[in-house]
Amino acid sequence: MPVAPSKPSNSAAPAGAENVDMPRRQPRLAKIPLLKMFVPPEALAPALTGTESAATDGSHAPLDVTPFSLPGSRLRSSPSAAARGWYAPALAGAPTTTRQAEILNTGIIGAPTGIEGVVNGTDNLSSTMICHDAPTAYNMTPRRITSPNVLVLGTVGSGKSSFTKTVLVMRPLLLRNHRAVVFDKKDQGGEGEYSSVARRLGAAPLRFDPDGSGTRLNLMDPLIASGTGLQGQMLLINAVARIARNDLPASEWEEKATRYALQNLFAEMEATDTTRAATTADLLPHLGDVPGDQNLSDLAKERFHQAGLSIRFGLENLLETYAGVFDGETSRNVDLAHKLTTFDVSQLPDDGPAVPTVMAIGNMWLMGRLRHERGYITNVVYEEGWHMIGGPSARLVKANQKLSRSLGISNVFVMHKGTDIPEDSPGYTVVQEAQTVYAFRQDRDEDARWVNQTFNFAPDTAETLMKLEVGNCVFKYGSNPETHMHHVRSDWEIDATNTDEAMAAGAATA
Ligand SMILES: Nc1ncnc2c1ncn2[C@@H]1O[C@H](COP(=O)(O)OP(=O)(O)OP(=O)(O)O)[C@@H](O)[C@H]1O
Ligand SMILES: [Mg+2]
């Protein structure tokens, strides 16, 4: 800034005032044009402020110069210097200060995660890599999160399954002692969308067929009682009966009658000394048994009998409709022989009890199976997880949260939106407990607001959620602030995870 010479003044002119003329009594060096750069600022202060008395008695205030009042270094723009490799900018410098420029420097924005776990994608703000694996974060000391459960939310086609297949299924399989179990709901060319992923990794999908020609799961599988006890078996029968009876909860009488039937069945199995496992068909005749040695009135006995029968009819309906899926012993191929196990329920009807029943039995079967094989981390993925936490089975998940953590299970629920889950339901508790959330695009304002409130996102994130591109999501773990993330896939992963092959094939032949 050009400065106009003016008379020195005795008044305490503010720092940065226009008066920068050299006073008479300044140090000698300050008078010599080139050498004055070596003069300490204190000596120059009176010269800059024009305060003579301060210079003489040495009691002047410390130098305080605002950057705007100083001319700053002049930018050189010399083509000849530039040609010789010197710094010679052609453009005038920007009128900014270092502090203003700092805010534009993304280099100082910290990476949202460390490098533990698996790569998820990149942070859209800082372009740094985001790494996270819920069980890894849970097992760290100190714990980064208090629950290993994960929620993946987003509207149709927003990229949830592509993300889940890569980040929550395939990549964690590379980690030591990790495996994955998937309940695969979406049909892709006559089979589940994870079937090709399973085959690429050398595993055979477990296919469930409504005609009974596929895999079978036994509601009474011995692993269930050995994993979660009689109480766990009771909970499962109650949940399945409730699913089969259109969400009608069991009454006190019905629960008592079911427990009595179970005890009778186990006593009978022990007495007959059979090596085969009990099945649902073995339980049915006992539902309706009435205790003889108790002081029950005839009316009470009749009520007890009827309570047992109503559970029996519900289960009978299920067995008759899905013969071959739930009757008999669990198929031999239901095992955790491979690192990836997929329960392909894509061919079972969308509505009705079959899908949630497979998920409920599968969940309890896993609990028993893992009890006998500790030391593994298992990501259990529920595609269309609403079937599991939006209905009666949520009670099972909630009751077994602690046990499943101790068995190394990380439950992953993939669903479109959360607004369908009643706030006072066990499913809502399960959702709230998830400490890792990947929220993909939400189309409806109320769904976006639900995500914002439930996971305590910043208020303006609701708007971001409604504008997310495919393959982008808002990611949050623990109490860390949420991050806008782009999911990155390798070419191999793109090939393995794309779900619009049928559409693409149609377009190619059109
Ligand atoms: N990271 C990504 N980058 C670019 N495109 C992607 C990405 N992830 C997914 N897509 C595209 O979006 C399509 C739909 O993805 P995906 O099946 O994962 O969605 P979805 O949310 O699971 O859908 P649905 O609700 O129907 O199950 C994919 O076939 C792919 O073409
Ligand atoms: Mg999907």
From TrEMBL:
Compositionally skewed regions (Low complexity) per UniProt: 1-17
InterPro entries documented for this protein: P-loop_NTPase
Annotated SUPFAM superfamilies: P-loop containing nucleoside triphosphate hydrolases (SSF52540)
Disordered: annotated span: 1-24
Designated name of the protein: ATP/GTP-binding protein
